[in-house]
Amino acid sequence: MKALTKLQVIEGPSCLTRAADDEPVFVLRARDPMAPLAIRAWAEQSLNHNVHETEKVMRALEEATEFEQWRVERFGK
Q1: What does each C-alpha distance from 13 to 19, 35, 55, 60 come to in angstroms?
Q2: Helix/strand/coil for 4
Q3: 11 CB contacts (<8 Å, ≥6 apart)?
Q4: In this model, does residue 9 exceed pLDDT 80?
């Protein structure tokens, strides 16, 4: 499953469109070289604490890889 683009996240359905109007959110972008590391740390903790279903965690890990691929395609690093 491909990571959602900005437009797809805004249009929904997405975690952003499902968030309550007053719910704080934190956005990671592929441009940020630390984002894949943060996603993988979240995934590891999610699995260790059995917080999220495995499918959701696996999707996040795939997206971390897509973030890295996008950066290489865009910036060569």
Answers
A1: 10, 22, 17, 16
A2: coil
A3: 17
A4: yes
CB 48, CB 41: distance < 8 Å: no
Whose tokens are 């592929």? That residue is 30
What residue spans of the chain are helical by DSSP H? Answer: 6-11, 15-18, 35-48, 54-75
Q: Which of 57, 63, 46, 58 is nearest to 8 (CA)?
A: 63
Give the position of tokens 């950066």: 71
Distance from C-alpha of 2 to C-alpha of 23, rounded to nearest angstrom: 26
Question: Residue 17 is encoded by which pair of tokens?
Answer: 């469109």
Helix 54-75 / helix 35-48 crossing angle, nearest 10 deg: 170
Share of the chain above pLDDT 70, in %: 99
